[in-house]
């Protein structure tokens, strides 16, 4: 079977579900009726001939879900010059999920939500003092009873200009009770958060294609991770070619960390949870991963105790710019009806709604319409065609005379369907010499309907001349039903506009 080029006409059905701004599909190129070849590809269609359709499928508004139903109504077959109507049009249903941006996650460490500085007014403070003297600031021990480094208290002298102003008492108090001082320490009560590095990003969505032909239903499901699929019955094959979008709303988080509340044990979580109101995206420079820097998220015991001039520094020094500070700043913005700066919720849509969501990725919804280019192949072995044929007539052809050096002339042809049924026609306009060839035009006329078509005339010479042309009308079987001979002239170029002379047939 020789290769035949066809045009597939898709009509959106009245029963289609339309979500957001989706109103139909767009044919991107002429499709072909081709031979089915058997090679090493195990997904080849089981057929002798196939229909290949290239189409663009838009998503819903803001990248949301969309569903479209369309049917293949007519084909144009160049090899036989026949415009044919499919007797039983295949119905194509395309369901497209909401589109999302997917980001890879890598667990880094846990950090405290709100580190706290504690102090105890006491006497005889020493780094190794027991709980009876320094109370909460006593050195900490791990589960094996070993002392945790850098958890000892820092002892500051009494006085009005100290970290915590305190009275030193009188000489007798010092002599009888010991030297007055304050013990300072950092502790991490309350909530902890997981910290994740954010890596490679990708686009995610799924497309379900269903084709009903006669009593047969074929179905495939595909997406960016599965771009070529074939139905079980080998009737339908689909390829995802690509997407037409600039992704202007797709952010990059390579310089950020994602923090989420810790629900269970420390370390890599088993579940990210759904408490999106507490999820935050913060620049990496706001963190200290080793805990050695003050005033950064993740600050540790060593940074607090090792800060210079601790006893003369303000209370809470070293513990600024923590997670709770950014959370409070966002809450204040929300109360003022402003978008949060750090929180995920309120800035993005459809958070972590991607399929098979786990602990190694998170996603946000794409907020722009995503047009996906699909190449769909259908087995064409059992397709039957019908077509309507009706006589027609050329009523009039007019061509204004134009100057030889102007850009082009225009031939206007008026035709009529003189039969009793609606039918397809083709119209050609051919000139004898020195005029560029014109593309054949295809159109449909209802009974007794008049149709006017225009052709642009491009002479190949700049000399004044006369031309002989023919307008030819063909029916839906591409048989000639009428012909009109006519002529027109071009004039030499003049500087003033003269009166126009009209050629006619």
UniProtKB/TrEMBL annotation:
Top-rank taxon of the source lineage equals: Eukaryota
Q: What is this protein called?
A: Uncharacterized protein
């Amino acid at each position: 079977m020789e290769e035949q080029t066809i045009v597939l006409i898709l009509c959106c059905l009245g029963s289609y579900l339309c979500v957001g701004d989706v109103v139909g599909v767009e044919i991107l190129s002429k499709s072909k009726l081709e031979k089915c070849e058997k090679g090493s590809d195990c997904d080849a269609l089981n057929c002798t001939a196939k229909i290949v359709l290239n189409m663009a499928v838009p998503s819903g508004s803001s990248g949301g879900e969309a569903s479209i139903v369309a049917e293949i109504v007519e084909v144009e077959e160049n090899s036989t010059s026949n415009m044919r109507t499919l007797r039983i049009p295949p119905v194509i249903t395309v369901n497209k999920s909401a589109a999302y941006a997917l980001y890879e996650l890598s667990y880094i460490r846990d950090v405290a939500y709100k580190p706290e500085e504690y102090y105890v007014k006491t006497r005889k403070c020493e780094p190794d003092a027991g709980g009876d003297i320094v109370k909460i600031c006593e050195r900490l021990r791990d589960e094996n009873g070993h002392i945790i480094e850098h958890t000892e208290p820092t002892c500051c002298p009494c006085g009005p200009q100290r970290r915590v102003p305190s009275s030193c008492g009188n000489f007798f108090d010092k002599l009888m009770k010991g030297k007055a001082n304050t013990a300072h320490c950092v502790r991490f009560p309350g909530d902890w958060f997981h910290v994740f590095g954010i890596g490679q990003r990708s686009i995610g969505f799924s497309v379900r294609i269903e084709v009903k032909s006669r009593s047969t239903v074929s179905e495939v499901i595909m997406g960016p991770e599965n771009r070529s699929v074939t139905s079980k019955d080998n009737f339908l094959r689909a390829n995802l070619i690509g997407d037409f979008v600039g992704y202007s709303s797709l952010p990059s988080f390579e310089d950020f960390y994602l923090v989420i509340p810790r629900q269970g044990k420390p370390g890599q979580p088993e579940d990210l949870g759904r408490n999106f109101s507490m999820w935050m995206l913060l620049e990496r420079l706001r963190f200290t991963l080793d805990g050695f820097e003050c005033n950064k998220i993740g600050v540790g015991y060593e940074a607090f105790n090792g800060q210079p001039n601790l006893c003369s520094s303000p209370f809470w020094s070293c513990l600024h710019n923590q997670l709770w500070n950014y959370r409070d700043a966002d809450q204040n913005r929300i109360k003022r009806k402003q978008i949060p700066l750090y929180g995920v919720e309120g800035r993005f849509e459809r958070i972590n709604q991607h399929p098979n969501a786990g602990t190694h990725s998170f996603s946000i919804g794409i907020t722009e319409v995503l047009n996906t280019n699909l190449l769909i192949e259908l087995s064409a072995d059992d397709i039957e065609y019908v077509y309507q044929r009706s006589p027609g007539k050329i009523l009039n052809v007019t061509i204004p005379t134009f100057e030889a050096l102007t850009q082009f002339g225009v031939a206007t042809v008026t035709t009529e369907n003189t039969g009793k049924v609606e039918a397809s026609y083709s119209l050609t306009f051919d000139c004898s010499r020195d005029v560029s060839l014109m593309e054949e035009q295809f159109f449909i006329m209802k009974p007794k309907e008049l149709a006017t078509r225009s052709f642009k005339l491009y002479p190949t010479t700049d000399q004044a001349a006369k031309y002989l042309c023919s307008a030819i009308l063909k029916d839906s079987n591409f048989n000639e039903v009428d012909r009109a001979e006519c002529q027109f002239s071009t004039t030499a170029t003049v500087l003033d506009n003269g009166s126009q002379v009209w050629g006619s047939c």
